């Protein structure tokens, strides 16, 4: 991929800058929003309690606010997911990343899954927003991912998303680990979904090479905490600087 033909803004507009770590402080939220404004990312993805604060911090900026619903395990009832969604959008979120009920997916209760996705998507769309459905692929087999893609396509959600970044799987030795976004899973999701359903990759994308590899596979949105280092690397490697905010530093 020829970096000299790619603009910094086009890369930044693919990023939801993630501010979701459990230890995130108010100061971290402020600095994270400031950094997202500098690069003009698509959104900041914040915890539900921080939506109104992030909206205020981003006033006058093109950066939007995303938040998460039933994060990271997807285990609350559909009724509560709807209530979370309504509250988040009233606070100022315009995009919702909702975790599916993973146990119901593994149980292959597709009627439950379809109804839940429909209710959340209807709620988000009625408020003028976009829904991203998080699968948490580390826990799933390909057959589950394919069926989830088909279900999300039937319900016309905006995005399917690989991972939360916190989907730690217990290993044989008792330790926990996660993989996050993989080329195999992204290719499977992109192949199964129609073109109007976008794919978001999240979990473990920390370098420019990883970012560009996902872009090549058809990903149109990335969840990342390493936003600053990824875009700084892109700038240094010859991407076109078309952001006025970077020229005044």
Number of domains: 1
What structural class do helix, strand and pairing data support?
Answer: alpha/beta
**Count of alpha and pi helical runs:** 11
Overall mean confidence score, pLDDT: 96
Tell me the helix content. 40-55%
Task: Write the CATH homologous superfamily.
Answer: Aldolase class I
Order of helices and strands: HEHEHEHEHHEHEEEHEHEHH
Would you tell me which CATH topology applies?
TIM Barrel
The first-level CATH class is given as Alpha Beta
Shape: globular
Cα-to-Cα separation, first versus last residue: 28 Å
Q: Catalogue the unreliable spans.
A: none
Described by strand count, sense and barrel closure, the largest sheet is: 8 strands, parallel, barrel
DSSP E strands, number: 10
Percent of sequence in beta strands: 15-25%
Report strand order across the widest sheet: 1-2-3-4-5-6-9-10
Radius of gyration using CA atoms only: 17 Å
The CATH architecture category equals Alpha-Beta Barrel
What would your notes on this structure say?
With 249 residues, this protein is α/β, with parallel strands linked by helices. The protein has one domain: Alpha-Beta Barrel (TIM Barrel), CATH 3.20.20.70. The chain has 11 helices and 10 strands. It has helices at 8-12, 26-39, 51-57, 78-91, 102-106, 110-126, 142-154, 183-192, 208-216, 227-236, 244-247; strands at 15-19, 43-46, 64-69, 95-99, 130-134, 159-161, 169-170, 176-177, 198-202, 221-224. Strands 1-2-3-4-5-6-9-10 form an 8-stranded parallel beta barrel, surrounded by 6 helices. Strands 7-8 form a two-stranded antiparallel ribbon. β7 and β8 (176-177) form a beta hairpin. α4 (78-91) packs parallel to α6 (110-126), α6 (110-126) packs across α7 and α7 (142-154) runs parallel beside α8.
């Amino acid at each position: 991929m020829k970096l000299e033909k790619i603009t910094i803004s086009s890369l930044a507009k693919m990023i939801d800058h993630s501010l979701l770590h459990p230890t995130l402080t108010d100061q971290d939220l402020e600095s994270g929003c400031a950094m997202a404004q500098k690069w003009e990312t698509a959104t900041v993805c914040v915890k539900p309690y921080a939506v109104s604060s992030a909206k205020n911090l981003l006033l006058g900026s093109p950066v939007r606010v995303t938040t998460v619903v039933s994060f990271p395990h997807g285990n609350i009832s559909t009724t509560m997911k709807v209530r979370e969604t309504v509250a988040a959008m009233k606070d100022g979120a315009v995009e919702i990343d909702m975790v599916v009920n993973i146990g119901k997916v593994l149980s292959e209760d597709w009627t439950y899954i379809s109804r839940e996705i429909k209710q959340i998507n209807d709620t988000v769309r009625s408020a003028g927003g976009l829904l991203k459905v998080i699968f948490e692929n580390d826990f799933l087999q390909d057959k589950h991912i394919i069926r989830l893609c088909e279900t999300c396509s039937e319900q016309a959600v905006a995005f399917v998303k690989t991972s939360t970044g916190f989907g730690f799987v217990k290993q044989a030795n008792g330790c926990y680990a996660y993989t996050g976004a993989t080329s195999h899973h992204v290719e499977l999701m992109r192949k199964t979904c129609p073109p109007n359903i976008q794919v978001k990759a999240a979990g473990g994308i920390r370098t420019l090479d990883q970012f560009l590899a996902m872009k090549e596979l058809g990903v149109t949105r990335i969840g990342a905490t390493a936003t600053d280092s990824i875009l700084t690397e892109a700038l240094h490697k010859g991407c076109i600087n078309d952001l006025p905010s970077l020229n005044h530093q």
